[in-house]
Amino acid sequence: MEKQDIKSMTQEELRAFLVSLGEKPFRTAQIYQWMHEKLASSFDDMTNLSKVLRQKLQDACEYVSLEKVRVQISQIDGTRKYLFRLADGNVIESVLMRYKHGNSVCISSQVGCRMGCRFCASTLDGLERNLRPSEMLDQIYQIQRDTGERVSNVVVMGSGEPLDNYDNLIRFIHLLTEEGGLHISQRNVTVSTCGLVPKIRELADQGLTITLALSLHAPNDEVRKSLMPIARTYALKDVLAACHYYFEKTGRRMTFEYSLVQGVNDNLDEARELAALIQDQHGHVNLIPVNPIKERSYVQSGRKAIEAFKGCLESKGINVTIRREMGRDIDGACGQLRKSYMDKEQEKEGAAVK
Ligand code: SAH
């Protein structure tokens, strides 16, 4: 029999599973609490279960627990970037950011990504596989255990396109936000998407109160197509209509992410065009100075250009923030740490073959 991914089970599924093993239903709350509240790293940690039961679980289940490979700590702001190894040997990265309002963890939703955004390091080698709910959760669990500090916000903005791993994402959100686990408020969870229109609409109908962030990055389809292949599939007017629908259904204001790339999307005409484009949307713009990756020649806009862009949007009544660059000194951009780790591993393998 294939081993069960026990950490991805809902409480109801866990109950049915335990009963199928011949166990009493009251064990459900105990075991669920060990996994999702006490953040046990193995069945052996579950000291109020008998040895026999622990062994039984061990035989029937896979207990997902990520292995910490490396932590990089920013000397500037204390941001911690983690590299974790999954059971199949793949590595993923997650980031802990410390803000005044609490600790925020940015998680990966896939190993790699198939969306192909030009400036993004996560997508350079394509998609390896989807992450399971347990593997998304455990990024947060490991970080909370490692620091001993409570995580209050979660952003699904690491490697991967979360809406391309939709069912696992929804299950992950339930496990993260419901009672019996970390019980993080859905309002403190943000999911960022490059704009998969049918999935944005499905998410709107899901009955969650999470925040949705759209990676916009351009004021029109032409510029967007040059940066994001997905723009060839979905026109901006359809993406924005889906965002409007999301707001109407959930009452949650959108975040529009706009990475500023010098000479590509950062002049004042483009700021005006952007303002007109999202005038009727309920949301705000988050400007991100593009984080250059060595595989591409994109250059960050200068401070002045960023401020001017911001000022222009504000003069049109748009709410704007400039994203603070957290952990600038530690391979900050999505997928950069994983990519540089894998490149080094490959070099080592190459050297070994020689
Ligand atoms: N697939 C999701 C989440 C990925 S990353 C999405 O597209 O939204 C989170 C954000 O960081 C996205 O807005 C993404 O476009 C942006 N991003 C990725 N690499 C970047 C880089 N090198 N510089 C600036 N922003 C980047």
Automatic annotation (TrEMBL):
EC number(s) reported in the record: 2.1.1.192
Pfam families the UniProt entry points to: Radical_SAM (PF04055), RlmN_N (PF21016)
Active site: residue positions: 93 (proton acceptor), 334 (s-methylcysteine intermediate)
GO biological process, one term: rRNA base methylation
Domain Radical SAM core intervals: 99-329
Stored Gene3D superfamilies: 1.10.150.530, Aldolase class I (3.20.20.70)
Swiss-Prot/TrEMBL keywords: 4Fe-4S, Cytoplasm, Disulfide bond, Iron, Iron-sulfur, Metal-binding, Methyltransferase, rRNA processing, S-adenosyl-L-methionine, Transferase, tRNA processing
Cofactor note (record): Binds 1 [4Fe-4S] cluster. The cluster is coordinated with 3 cysteines and an exchangeable S-adenosyl-L-methionine.
Location of the protein in the cell: Cytoplasm
Record's miscellaneous remark: Reaction proceeds by a ping-pong mechanism involving intermediate methylation of a conserved cysteine residue.
The protein's role, per its UniProt record: Specifically methylates position 2 of adenine 2503 in 23S rRNA and position 2 of adenine 37 in tRNAs.
Protein name in the entry: Probable dual-specificity RNA methyltransferase RlmN
Source organism of the structure: Clostridium fessum
